[in-house]
Amino acid sequence: MSRELLNIVEAVANEKEVDRSVIIEALEAALAAATRKRYPDEEIDAKVVIDPRSGEYKSFRVWTIVDDEAILENPDAEMRESVATIEYPEQNLHVGDVLEIPIENEPFGRISAQQAKQIIIQKLREAERRKVYDRFIAEEGTLVHGIVRRHERGNVIVDVNGVEATILRDGMIPRENLRVGDRIRGYLAKVNLEMRGPQLEVSRVAPEMLKALFTLEVPEIGTGIIEIMGVARDPGLRAKIAVRTFDPRVDPVGACVGIRGSRVQGVMNELAGERIDIVLWDDDPETFVRKAMAPAQITATAADEVRKSIDIAVPENKLPQAVGRGGQNVRLASELTGWTINVLSEAEFQARQEAAQDAQERELAAALDVDDDIADILIEAGYNTAEAVASAEREELLAIEDFDEETVDALIERAADHLLQQAFVEEVKPEEEMQLPLDSVEGLDESVIAILQEKGLHTQEDLAELSVDELMTYTGMNQEQASALILKAREPWFRG
Fold first, then answer.
1. Which strands make up the sheet holding 309-314, listed edge to edge?
2. Which residues contact 230 (CB under 8 A, 6 or more apart)?
3. pLDDT, averaged across the chain
4. Half-sphere CA count of 445, side-chain side, radius 13 A
5. What pairing do the DSSP bridges indicate for beta strands 45-50 and 78-80?
6. Prior bond of 295 cis (ω within 30°)
7. Is 197 buried (19+), middle (13-18) or exposed (0-12) by CB count in 10 A?
8. pLDDT at 198
9. Are the beta carbons of 315 and 299 closer than 8 angstroms?
10. What is the CB neighbour count within 10 angstroms for residue 360?
11. 319-328: long-range contacts (C-beta < 8 A, 24 or more apart)?
């Protein structure tokens, strides 16, 4: 029977183009399963080892050595350490070891053909998935070429170098008609080893695909002369891509467009005619937003760096063009720049700016205790906050028209006082722990707590604000006791 085994191994290995060890492992599993069936009343663990050279095989009953105090989960496959030591002293077995006892081989002919087939098929599938995974994992995150083979449940199955890949429904460009036999490119988004989902997942809507296509079409990107700084897509309709270069001799936008638009046209053709705006990147957010919003005609901008939000003004009759159909233009520009872009008419922009300035004037006037006119002069000169006034050079403030020395000195003093007051308010904000009840203070007994509560004192803060003499009067404590107790209550004041 050994020759028959080897013949099966060779035949299947050659037919499926897998390693002989995979087939041998499958046959060992099939033989082990058949061996376990010889013990219908027990849940034994069995192992079969096939000699790959001779085809001979040996069978073993497997025992796991467990601690004497452990509860046996499977008495048919677990043996206590003390029992193993007595019955198999020569093995020197300890907890965690595996004892393999030779048993009679199950005749190969009696193995369930269906069972053996299932195990072999399973092992072959696992081997094939591993083979595909090892072959493509290095290509994850790159462009791949494929031929459309069929449509399946809304997905598209593509042949990628002899292996089936899947373009999921949400990975397809909307309204793109992929026909059987079409040659396409796709972005290899994921290579799965697990059984969940397709093993090769390809996307035609990923922003990375646009970036990869430009890298192919524009040699300067591949060599690092031009760098892609960001990509935003509305697949099949419109996209924006930001580029820059550190070489002053190179026009990054022109290089990406190509002669008579040849390079960008090649990318557009691959993406079902998706229109592409190529934007020159800028490290100044307002300038970058202006370029990203093209072809919008922007007349003014106001940025809030804290919120990463920017208001832009456009002529009333240019609002639809700036926003784009369905908000497409502003949405893509926001995604590309990373800033929230608010498109306003010039009238709306002016009204919002005036409202913001009025609020700023009122806040500054209140902080410095001056009228709105002086606050307006300070804001016009670039001093928008009390902090800016306090840190300003005296000579700079004196250079402001209508400000004399007395006014400047008063402004600086008031700004400093305001900052000091703000710092003090923040510093002395009551801590939550100061509002705890009296019984949380270490060293207070119930009788003292009752006396203090009669005096209207209920929290740790109330106790901390007492003087030593007051506490002595209320409770009859001596000076040392009262002093220690008040210091204990005041501990939160001295932290940090």
1. 300-304, 309-314, 340-345
2. 241, 242, 281, 336, 337, 338
3. 86
4. 4
5. unpaired
6. yes
7. exposed
8. 75
9. yes
10. 16
11. 319/343, 319/345, 321/295, 321/296, 321/297, 322/293, 322/296, 322/297, 322/298, 324/238, 328/234, 328/237, 328/238
Mean pLDDT over residues 115-134, rounded?
77
Q: Residue 391 and residue 388: Cα distance in Å, rounded?
A: 5
Distance, CA of 423 to CA of 434 (rounded, Å):
20
CA–CA distance from 231 to each of 48, 132, 234, 307, 326 (Å)? 57, 30, 10, 22, 19
* CA distances in angstroms from 456 to 435, 441, 452, listed in the order given: 14, 17, 7
Let me know if 2 is exposed, middle or buried by CB neighbors in 10 A (0-12, 13-18, 19+).
Answer: middle
Where does residue 456 fall: left (phi above 0), alpha (psi -120 to 50 degrees), or beta otherwise?
A: left
Q: Which two tokens stand for residue 367?
A: 């902080």
Question: Residue 63: which of 47, 41, 39, 40 has the closest Cα?
Answer: 47
> How many CB atoms are located within 10 Å of the residue 324 CB?
19
Contact 451, 463 (CB under 8 A): no
Is residue 333 helix, strand or coil?
helix
In a 3-state reduction of DSSP, which class is residue 310? strand
* pLDDT class of 496 with cuts at 50, 70, 90: very low
CB neighbours of residue 163 within 10 Å: 16
Residue with tokens 């705006």: 277
Where does residue 11 rank: exposed (0-12), middle (13-18), buried (19+ CB within 10 A)?
Answer: exposed
Asked whether the beta carbons of 93 and 41 are under 8 A apart, the reply is: no
Q: How far apart are CA 79 and CA 64, in angstroms?
A: 6
Model pLDDT for residues 350-390, shown as the tens digit of each residue? 988 888 888 878 888 888 888 888 888 888 888 888 888 88
Question: For residues 119 and 113, what is the distance between their CA atoms, to the nearest angstrom?
Answer: 10
Give yes or no for a contact between 485 and 471, defined as CB atoms under 8 angstroms apart.
yes
- Model pTM score: 0.62
Helix (H, G, I), strand (E, B) or coil at 58: strand
pLDDT(493) > 70 = no
b/e map 343-358, b = 16+ CB within 10 Å: bbbeeebeeeeeeeee
Angle (CA) 153-156-159 rounded to 5° is: 135
∠ CA(59), CA(98), CA(118), 5° rounding? 45
Asked if 123 and 25 touch (Cβ cutoff 8 Å), the reply is yes
Alpha-carbon dihedral sign for residues 342, 345, 347, 350: positive
119 close to 30: Cβ distance less than 8 angstroms: yes
User: Could you tell me where the DSSP H helices lie in 17-80?
Assistant: 20-36
pLDDT digits (tens, 9 = 90+) for 192-246: 887 666 789 999 999 999 999 999 999 999 999 999 999 999 999 999 999 999 9
